[in-house]
Amino acid sequence: MKLHWFKRAGIFFVPISLPGWLILAAGAAWAVYAFIDVDSRSHSVSDTLMNFVFSLLIIGAVYSLVAYLTGGSGSAREKDGPDSTGGS
Amino acid sequence: MTAFEETLTGMTRPGVPELKHQALLAQAISKGRSKSVLSLWWMSIPLYVTAMLLMKSAYMRNTTLMSNLHEFIGREKYAAALFFLIAPAVFIIINAASIRRIHYLSGGPGPAALLRRAWFNAAVIIVSVTIIIIYFS
């Protein structure tokens, strides 16, 4: 069964259904938790940011993998016709 | 006579606005872009780690990027293997397959025309190869 929970817009996967929004909300909650966790153990603002960005990238990678596997393989402009110049 | 012409018009083969392989090609390009975007997210992690280690080597005078990388790979064996070896290898295969499909559906165009359609996939492959080289250097 082919799922349509996400569509791709540029380098982001945008949710287009309730399960997609729930996954995005879970990712955002995970990011907030990661920020609080990193901030409680860091010694400076730069220390917090460096470690938080790493966590954020991991969250983004996992989210994009889930979004791709649950229907994000088509772009938002797919129905309007292809852009043969390539790129995103 | 008029009725005959109308019948003849009705019997005419319906026009096909676009060929089937054009739709397939558009779909292949779109899927290829999605794969390259997915690859980009996963490639950003080793690139970020490399950038951080580069900054560390710049601020700590007695270390180099390579020594910091070797220290990181020794300390985080599984994570380093996942982000610097397995993920890039998988994305090289996926993007190469996408480029091959686009090449096939485009009717075997030259390198310039192919790159115009799949340059993002090619760029992801180059970045992935660079990350694997960094891992083994």
Please provide a written account of the structure.
The complex is a heterodimer of chains A (88) and B (137). Chain A has 88 residues and is mainly alpha-helical. Chain A has one domain (6-72). Chain A contains 2 helices and 2 strands, in the order E-E-H-H. The two termini of chain A are 27 Å apart. The radius of gyration of chain B is 24 Å and the shape is rod-shaped. Chain B is 85% helix and 0% strand. Chain B has 137 residues and is mainly α. Classes of the chains: A mainly alpha (88), B mainly alpha (137). Chain A binds chain B through residues 8, 10-11, 13, 50, 53-54, 57-58, 60-61, 64-65, 68, 72-75, 78, 81-88, and chain B through 25-27, 29-31, 33-38, 40-42, 44-45, 48-49, 52, 115-120.
From the structure above, extract its key features.
heterodimer; A: 88 residues; mainly alpha; two-stranded antiparallel ribbon; 2 strands; 56% helix; 9% strand; elongated; disordered C terminus; B: 137 residues; rod-shaped
Beta-strand portion of chain B reads under 5%
Could you give the distance between the termini of chain B?
83 Å
In whole angstroms, how far apart are the ends of chain A? Answer: 27 Å
Q: How many domains, in number, for the residues of chain A?
A: 1
Biggest β-sheet: strands ordered side by side in the sheet of chain A:
1-2
The largest interface is: A-B, 27 and 26 residues
* Number of self-contained structural domains of chain B: 1
Proportion in helices of chain A: 55-70%
Largest sheet of chain A: 2 strands, antiparallel
Order of H and E elements of chain A: EEHH
Number of strands of chain B: 0
Alpha carbon gyration radius of chain B: 24 Å
**Can you count the helices of chain A?**
2
Detail the poorly predicted runs of chain A: 79-88
Number of strand segments of chain A = 2
Query: Structural class, from helix and strand content of chain B?
Result: mainly alpha
Strand content of chain A is 5-15%
Number of helices of chain B: 5
Q: What spatial form of chain B do the alpha-carbon principal axes imply?
A: rod-shaped
Work out the radius of gyration of chain A.
16 Å
Structural class of chain A: mainly alpha
